[in-house]
């Protein structure tokens, strides 16, 4: 049997559009691109090929992803640096690498194709696997730990906030009752419990009934939204003048944080009714996308995982004035 290579396993989402948004900032000698969510390296491969003067710093919290991306990007070994880090650690990484500013940064958020495809990682609700869901396999807390230790109130909170699950309290109560008989270890049992907890009429739309619960658990396990809230301002602060940021999100919670962060930088930090904006208080970002851009129908047909993608981008137009 032929073992699939990283390029076989990974179809980068909205590749041409992402490259078009970032490439103008990467065409000069010494340009630095950060791929904050390296994954299997599909987007980075395209940048290294199409931006021959750029150097890539690839971050990922998943050691397996770093290894596979390193294999894929081996032809560009002289222009790549790989770091095992979560993307909110960007300031530390740049300081340790003695990089004062970057010209482009890409965030491709959510769970990677590799993590979805490897059943034993426990991300997919449609196949039975250990309830793990850690993007970094060295992290201490798994989805099973959360299911077996959180109170009903805390479980309901994360299901409602992170999964936007209308039946969060009912599902949480059933989880707490079920774990008294036997702790949760595998995804099939949780998936069945969620399906049974949701009224039959509500199961007819919206995809798999356990989708929102699994999303919420994954976000909680990996602290995804808290990390993103720290990472985006740090990424903007690290941009050189005319540097660009592109963020690709896959659900409304990520997109809302992205929209708010970029919009804040694209407006002045003085009151709206002030007739003249004082020097040094002009917006420091310019939005490059009108709202959130979506994949084309053809791309979704070719790559169903692209269906929920939303892309926002901005460029730095002023060096000073970032409000902490």
TrEMBL record:
Catalytic activity: cytidine(1402) in 16S rRNA + S-adenosyl-L-methionine = N(4)-methylcytidine(1402) in 16S rRNA + S-adenosyl-L-homocysteine + H(+)
GO molecular function: rRNA (cytosine-N4-)-methyltransferase activity
Compositional bias per record (Low complexity), positions renumbered to this chain: 301-313
Enzyme Commission code(s) on record: 2.1.1.199
Entry's transmembrane regions: none
InterPro entries noted in UniProt: RsmH, SAM-dep_MeTrfase_MraW_recog, SAM-dependent_MTases_sf
Chief location bin: cytoplasm
Location within or outside the cell: Cytoplasm
Pfam families: Methyltransf_5
Region described as Disordered: 294-313
Gene Ontology terms describing biological process: rRNA base methylation
Entry annotated with the keyword Cytoplasm: yes
Residues involved in S-adenosyl-L-methionine binding: 41-43, 60, 87, 108, 115
Keywords tagged on the record: Cytoplasm, Methyltransferase, rRNA processing, S-adenosyl-L-methionine, Transferase
Enzyme class: transferase
KW Transcription regulation (keyword) present: no
Role: Specifically methylates the N4 position of cytidine in position 1402 (C1402) of 16S rRNA.
Family statement: Belongs to the methyltransferase superfamily. RsmH family.
Protein's name according to its UniProt entry: Ribosomal RNA small subunit methyltransferase H
Protein's organism: Kribbella italica
Gene designation per UniProt: rsmH
């Amino acid at each position: 049997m032929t073992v699939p290579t990283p390029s076989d396993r990974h179809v980068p989402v909205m590749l041409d559009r992402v490259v078009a948004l970032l490439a103008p900032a990467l065409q000069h000698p010494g340009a630095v691109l950060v791929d904050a969510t390296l994954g299997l390296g599909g987007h980075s491969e395209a940048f290294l090929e199409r931006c021959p003067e750029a150097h890539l710093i690839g971050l990922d919290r998943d050691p397996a992803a770093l290894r596979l991306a390193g294999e894929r990007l081996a032809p560009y070994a002289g222009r790549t640096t790989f770091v095992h880090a979560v993307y909110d650690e960007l300031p530390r990484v740049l300081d340790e690498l003695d990089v004062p500013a970057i010209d482009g940064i890409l965030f491709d958020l959510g769970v990677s194709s590799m993590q979805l495809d490897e059943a034993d990682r426990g991300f997919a609700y449609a196949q039975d696997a250990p309830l793990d869901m850690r993007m970094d396999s060295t992290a201490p807390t798994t989805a099973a730990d959360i299911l077996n230790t959180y109170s009903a109130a805390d479980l309901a909170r994360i299901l409602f906030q992170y999964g936007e699950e209308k039946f969060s309290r009912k599902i949480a109560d059933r989880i707490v009752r079920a774990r008294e008989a036997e702790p949760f270890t595998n995804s099939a049992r949780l998936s069945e419990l969620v399906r049974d907890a949701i009224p039959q009429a509500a199961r007819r739309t919206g995809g798999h009934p356990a989708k929102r619960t699994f999303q919420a658990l994954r976000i909680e396990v990996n602290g995804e939204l808290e990390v993103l809230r720290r990472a985006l301002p740090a990424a903007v602060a690290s941009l050189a003048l005319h540097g660009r940021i592109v963020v690709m999100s896959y659900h409304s919670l990520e997109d809302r944080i992205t929209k708010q962060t970029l919009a804040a930088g694209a407006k002045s930090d003085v009151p709206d009714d002030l007739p003249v904006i004082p020097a040094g208080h002009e917006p420091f970002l310019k939005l490059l996308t009108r709202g959130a851009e979506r994949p084309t129908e053809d791309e979704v047909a070719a790559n169903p995982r692209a269906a929920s993608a939303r892309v926002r981008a901005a460029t730095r137009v002023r060096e000073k004035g970032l409000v902490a």
